Amino acid sequence: MVKAIKWAFGLALPVLAVLSSVLAQSQADTPAAAQARAEIPAVEALLKRVPDRAAVLYYLAGDYLLLGESQKALALLKECVAANEGFDPDRDPVFRPLYGDARFRSLVMQAEKQYPVVDRAQVAFSVPEKDLIPEGLAFDEKAQVFYLSSLFHKKIVRFGMDGKVSDFVPEGKYDLLPICGLRDEIADNSLWAAGCEDDGRGELYHFSADGSRLEHISPPTPGKHLFNDLVLRGNSEIYLTDSLANQVYRIERKGHKFTTLSFPRPLFYPNGITLSDDQKLLYVADAFGVFVFDLEQNTSHEVDRGPSGTLSGIDGLYWYKGDLVGVQNGIGVPRITQFSLAPGGLRVQQEKTLVYRSPQLGTTTTGAIRNSDFLFIENSQIDNREGNRILDPAKLEPVHIGKVALSPVP
Length: 410
What we know:
Strand content: 35-45%
Number of strands: 27
CATH superfamily of the largest domain: TolB, C-terminal domain
Shape: globular
Helix content: 10-25%
Number of domains: 2
CATH architecture of the largest domain: 6 Propeller
Structural class: alpha+beta
Largest sheet: 5 strands, antiparallel
CATH topology of the largest domain: Neuraminidase
């Protein structure tokens, strides 16, 4: 789920729009400001622990702005953009109060010069149901079908290579939560789905090839949870990110036993997750970077971002022949990036931007790999949803699934 949702928890998007015209004191009284005030000390403590300092600066800038401290926010953004890693706050709703500020516009212009338009994608499919508000996309290679999740209608649709769309799990059939990440099970064409309610509820669902619900797994502990994305390891384990509990779980398929994985530093909004082809390495993205977890040695390390660029802000994360492919929507203007890893998988040796500043690229979330193409949700329209209502129905449009060729692996 897109990072702006994390910052906006408890704060309706219309309120974010109002923030641009209210006084700093009223900004500091919002629920989101209370959350920001509580987390700033923990985030600032990470400045010496997170390899990508610019990622932490960007996060802190949003928190300070929610407290009404625009000067502090601008100073942090200036340092972040100067790092020349690809951060551009232009489309981030958290920074809407600064949209009319000349200093903010200057930073945006600087970012635009650093990273120009990259538009290699084309529209592969269009889904006519405008108010789906999709978050997850999965591709079943055996059946040659795609699955698309809906946050607004709390359902899953399916479409084939001919583009014909039908409901796989209809709205209201099982009283589902809004659906985030999806993952297909190759052995039997079944599908796993993560339920993710904004109010802090999470559930995991397993559906048969005909859309019947086979399993329903609840969180292991009380408190707020947001089951975001998942991967399957063989037929015995599931790995799942819980963005509100700031945890990654190993779930044993038999008995549904949860085990929490350990990482070198605290996680902040863990999100995208993927496995290496040999299923020995698990990669997990959080707000500030990517971790690799060795599933045989039970050890973890933060992936070195390499000589330039950033691994932060990744929503959808995918493995492709030794590379990582990331949908980065937590760095301001979103982009699709392919990261070539050094042998051993602990360091980025080359970064290639595949899609950036494309006119068609709206609020993108996740994707799926088919052969050597990456297909992704171009316009989730997630910023046009508030709970059980659409903010502006007139702005809705068909959901477009973009396609971009992945770079050959050296």
